[in-house]
Amino acid sequence: MSKVNTTNRTFKTIAFLSLSLVLGACGQSATTTPSMGSGRQGIKMPSSLRNTSQTPGKWFVELAGDPTGLTAQSVSGQQTGFRAQAVAQGIKYTEVQSYDTLFNGFSVEATGAEINRISRMPGVTGVYPVRRVDAPRTTVSPNSLAAPEMYYAKGMTGADIAQNELGLTGKGVKVGVIDTGIDVDHPAFKGRIVAGYDFVGDDYGKNGKYVPVPDNNPDDCAGHGTHVAGIVGGNVASNGFKGVAPEVSFGAYRVFGCEGSSYDDVILEAMERSVKDGMQVVNMSLGSAFDDWAETPLAKAGNRMIKKGVILVASAGNSGGDGQYSMGGPTMGDSVISVASVDNVKVDLAAFTLSDGSKIGYYPATGAPAPKKGTTLPITKGPKGSPTVANDGCDPYAANSLTGKAVLIRRGTCSFYIKATNAQKAGASAMVLYNNAAGYISPTVEGDPPITIPVVSVSDIDGVKIDELIAGGVSMTFDGGQLTIANPTANASSSFSSYGMSAELELKPDIGAPGGNIYSTYPLNAGDGSGYAVLSGTSMASPHVAGAVALILQAYPKTQPKDMRGLLMNTASLRWYLNNGTLLTGLPDYVQRQGAGMVNIVGAYSNTVSATPSKLSLGESAAFTTRNKVIVLKNTGARREVYTAFNYPALTVAGTTLAPTPNQTYATMTINGKSADADAGVEVVVPPFSEVELNVVVSPPAAAPDKAQYGGYVNLVSTTSPSLVVPYAGFKGDYQSLQSLGDLIIGGTKYNAPLLVDDGDDALYPEGAAAPTMPDYTFKPVEVTYSNGSKDTVMDAPYLAANFAHQVRTLTFELLDGNGAVVDTLAKEDYLARNCTNDLSKQSASCDALTTFNWDGKLTGGKDAPAGVYSLRLSALKPLGDTSNPAHTEVYTSQKFKVLR
């Protein structure tokens, strides 16, 4: 999963290239407003931030009623009525797709003004942008082992025992994979793809063009879907490769072309088709980061799949480096099983050989050419290079200083693309990137212009070793070697795995599974041609759980979809926090990153006592100083079960949204009126075929920092049966005190934001700053000459640049007259995502810093606003905010400007 970008909208998200997939976190501090100066212009605009033309965008239009509870005739009648009303009102739009199984409505193309009119039509309950979903970014590490298998990861979840001792294979269960397709020629899936469809065609997304050419062949030319399907249930008799459920049948639903991205409306089509095709389990290793709401169309559709009898398993996302509240997409559905990633116990790596004879394992960087076998290069480093420097490689090197050499560069401060660009410009023949924390990373150096030299990533330990050898002279040879090593981050939550909770403080993710360094199938005509590769991501964790679901369904076919998640969560095992290479064993890792813990297939299979609900979302402590919850234990077995119940607190997530830090303060708890914090715990007896209630009272950690997320587990320990866990999570303090409209860092300087932008004068005006001269706009194309002599034609129209530091429940965009009275509501949108960062220099194709709000000079009815003085206003209602409480809505009003006609 990766961050989506919304294009061609009234609310337009600007995306930038050339940032590594793995981002450093940055905090938000107090802001000062720089002086505007005495000139005509405000703060100088970055050339990359220019207003775009007012073109139609793509939107979901939702009509009243859940289609799972309506007849087909009712849904059809509503949609026919909508079309007739739109024609009668003269609304201009293009219908792209209609939906009737999981979503009642359409995807349409329309301008911002027209979609605003549509949103006010009778029977329309909501409009939502159709978001772009980037193809899940994972790093391919080619590996041609003689006997490929998933032994390490299967041993972590108990899948090996389920297969070899319990005889579970997933036989008879249909699993749909909504992804890049499945390699139909791979022997791992021979004769087992029983349904499928290609919604897009090979060229969809190529060169930024999204013209679907669907057909009935869901063959994979990108690789990701084949890898995912192999984890679910690949099976190759000739070499012993087996996925988690090696006898499932597959539905293959291709929503990505050979390269590029897809869109939510295509994905929703695939979700509906998977239901109609009779899939029992569906895996979705995709989604949009930061869109952290259960009310978005794909999240709603995910919930409705469960109502239709289909169990949906979805990846939690790979935006852990971008801080808290970073999940999004279908995984946010209340009933969807949301899966976090845990690092594998072993790592299979490609390797190069040093001149001292030692082998160094590495990951090749995405966006750089593969190393050429047989190449030998001397290794050097820059003048600042050392294992302690924070900004190694961030400044340009002297011309030709690295010619013909491999340069060693430490991770930190600037993006990997910048480091690789500087090395390439200085003549380097390769770049060796080493980690500044324990273990390995899977970097990307994609950007424009592209990187043309090999870039490989090694561990922190190996980087320090190479650094020490440079003084005496050392060289490297790419000889095609391979290594299997003990993973230094084994069994810890993967650093890339996204953080919850949801924007409405619901506990997500739900459960963890192996996702870091997973060996599985790959298209036969891709990678190194072996048909196998190592990938990392929550994309790899989700199919482990989908496979586990298939095994449980085989064993217990009457298990209801609504109960499957609790069955898996109840018996999960906790993971620990990795801090600079050392596991902090005092408290488990954040609940907001691992959910209930690692999936335990054998425990779920053998457990006879369920705990309901399977998780406790406690909300904010400002409203409730303590939270009372009831957990029902139901024993379906003939044996009396005895547990000792404890409060098992996890680490508290402190720090800021963009820079979370661990804190060891924790909540206290009583169970049935007795302290669950004491070593003795609380005894709980569940008789055969009976139910017992636990009255749980949780008090937030008094010493925890304000705005922190706390959490832990109701841990029921048994000496004779599987122990049980029920995770809980809450927010310390007043949730509405989190800032939604944040500030922006441009060129290293932080500005009050939102900002008014004037492309015609190549200027922007920070919030609260007085404009030396009132800006004016003609709404006509104008030619601008920039300081570097370049020229461009831009639309002379005002727009706002805003940073969403936190999700926004409802955003209202208004036009005011010179006296501050409302002239028109230009747009209104619900459930907005937060931005990935607040620093324009840290943006990439999958990480944006701002959203723009464009005005085309027209009023809602389509007429031009008359000449005069105006301003623009944004009102942001915060998540869980009360519209009657002014403190829950942030309001920004731009500087006044003139409209010239």
* Multimeric state: single chain
**What low-confidence regions span 5 or more consecutive residues with pLDDT below 50?**
1-41, 142-148
Distance N to C terminus: 46 Å
Number of continuous helical runs: 13
**Mind summarizing the main beta sheet?**
7 strands, antiparallel
Layout of helices and strands:
Blueprint: E1 11-13, E2 43-44, E3 57-63, H1 72-88, E4 94-99, E5 105-110, H2 112-119, E6 124-129, E7 132-134, E8 141-142, H3 151-157, H4 159-164, E9 174-179, E10 193-198, H5 224-233, E11 235-236, E12 241-242, E13 249-254, E14 261-263, H6 264-276, E15 281-284, H7 297-307, E16 311-315, E17 337-343, E18 346-354, E19 359-364, E20 376-381, E21 406-410, H8 416-425, E22 430-434, E23 455-458, H9 460-470, E24 475-486, E25 511-516, E26 518-521, E27 532-535, H10 538-555, H11 561-570, E28 576-579, E29 582-588, H12 591-594, H13 601-606, E30 609-612, E31 616-620, E32 627-635, E33 641-649, E34 652-655, E35 660-663, E36 668-671, E37 674-675, E38 682-686, E39 691-699, E40 709-717, E41 724-731, E42 741-742, E43 744-746, E44 749-751, E45 755-758, E46 763-766, E47 776-777, E48 781-785, E49 791-795, E50 798-804, E51 808-817, E52 822-832, E53 851-854, E54 868-877, E55 889-893, E56 897-899
Parallel strand pairs: 9-13, 9-15, 10-13, 15-16, 16-17, 17-25, 20-21, 21-22, 22-23, 31-41, 47-56
Antiparallel strand pairs: 1-53, 2-46, 3-5, 3-6, 4-5, 7-14, 8-27, 11-12, 18-19, 18-24, 19-23, 20-24, 26-27, 28-29, 30-32, 32-39, 33-38, 33-40, 34-35, 36-37, 36-39, 40-41, 42-50, 43-44, 45-46, 45-50, 48-49, 50-53, 51-52, 51-54, 54-55, 54-56
Helix pairs in contact: 5-10, 6-7
